[in-house]
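Hi R.,

Here are the chain sequences for the assembly we discussed:
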Amino acid sequence: MADLIVDALNYVGIIAFAVSGALKAGEKDLDLLGFLVLGYSTALAGGIIRDLILGIVPPTNITSLPYQLAAIGASAFTFALYDKVSKYRDVVLYPDALGLGAFAAIGADIALKRGLNPLGVAAMAAITAAGGGVVRDVLAAEIPLVLRKEIYATAAAIGGLVYLSLYYIEGREVALLGTIISVVALRLLSLRYGWELPRLKRRAASPGA
Amino acid sequence: MADLIVDALNYVGIIAFAVSGALKAGEKDLDLLGFLVLGYSTALAGGIIRDLILGIVPPTNITSLPYQLAAIGASAFTFALYDKVSKYRDVVLYPDALGLGAFAAIGADIALKRGLNPLGVAAMAAITAAGGGVVRDVLAAEIPLVLRKEIYATAAAIGGLVYLSLYYIEGREVALLGTIISVVALRLLSLRYGWELPRLKRRAASPGA
Amino acid sequence: MADLIVDALNYVGIIAFAVSGALKAGEKDLDLLGFLVLGYSTALAGGIIRDLILGIVPPTNITSLPYQLAAIGASAFTFALYDKVSKYRDVVLYPDALGLGAFAAIGADIALKRGLNPLGVAAMAAITAAGGGVVRDVLAAEIPLVLRKEIYATAAAIGGLVYLSLYYIEGREVALLGTIISVVALRLLSLRYGWELPRLKRRAASPGA
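And here is the predicted structure of the full complex:
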């Protein structure tokens, strides 16, 4: 049951992430291939990097035709209906949050199976969930958004620790669902109330740096 | 026979790609190491990424001394004779197209051997052929050229599908040669006639994006 | 004995590299997560990339809790005391040089064990030592410093060749220590005397490039 929910939300995430990548391609005036590559990368690169680190080759996101078709389909759809999709940009934040939760749960689940330590589990949850966005921003020649603002990768990393705790207390199914609920709640609350991570009070002067 | 041709064109590609990386290093005013790293990466990083994804470690491009020497030699040559090489920049497009075809054929060939699905085969052809150029542009802090203009990675991806079709109809040898011919033809025709992939009609206004 | 020294200097390097990543995060006005990710990446990404290329998965830097805690601790410390640490930026160059030497020795040692050719050993020494800094700069949307100026990755690559030569003449222990001494000496001398790699005499005009 939990696996079914995770799998369904995984598709929600792939589609929402691909849309976010394709919207970035539109901002940067890329061509159709740019839309497909940025959509594909945003949706699937986090899981690919996680699998490479854990020694799962070829990575699941490369061997799964349905995942690839979902990512490419959503990217092509965004290209075709760019103005409409762009107008509903804020609505995409909700499925995006669901995907963030599902990706974090999946990443933590696989990392624990492979015997990583707690920091490794948190890192794999964050990389699965936010790695695609980092690749998207690097390809767009920008500093990754997740390093600059909003509670995003942090929510996923905390989700990894929630997974670990629940796993040993209540078992895998509860851990999966509890992770998703925690991450989605944390993400939506942070958006609603404008929570941000701390940053330096005054920027230190760094002449010529 | 087909393998011999592929191998010869592979060297043509390594040298042409390394030159393109070294020319980018010159544009960015990098030092000698910058020339070598950008030349090496442009020539060999696509194949390295492909091998990591397919679980071939250490990657062939790291264990093959001749490939490495060809890439480093061509980069050093470009450094030494920068003004001359730079003047013949447009001539390099022809060996570059041959390399694109050979790299696409090699990528598709390995991907099929490893049992990837058709989308995976097309992706591996494109990554082998265009991944090095993406790494070059990321290291130069630019949006990768292949995402913005020209038929380049797209030609390689189509080459992957040509390989697949020919492989089942005519066998591996014909598939290798047919892929190279298709990719080179598509690339040169697109250069000749200025073919581009479609892009958004009018750029959507994205204030502050 | 040599292993003990290498291990101690490895921690010196992790801490110095993490500080350098966190200082870059401050320059770019990133949030706390940005500090942790840039510190972590600068300290550990070089070794992670090396391990992925050599097929060591999960990479040691992911499975070692002490390494991760050292990197994260140094990054958080830099965040908390940014102005103070920033003021001693030049002092960090000394532990950074020690880390450069230790990372190069470790990279060459592992690469030789895995049977790489001499160019591969030099490349693994350089990637272990300078790969983290490249990731730091790519995440900061800048052209990697090591490609533009100073003798840094070059010192590590030369260290890889020193390792190889000493290994066959004097054995592994001498090779480890000799590599560290050579790299640290070369790095500090280059800083002291302002040595740079050669670059193009006059920048070739590259209109519209």
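The mean pLDDT of chain A is 95. The two ends of chain A are 53 Å apart (CA to CA).

Let me know if anything looks off.

Best,
T.
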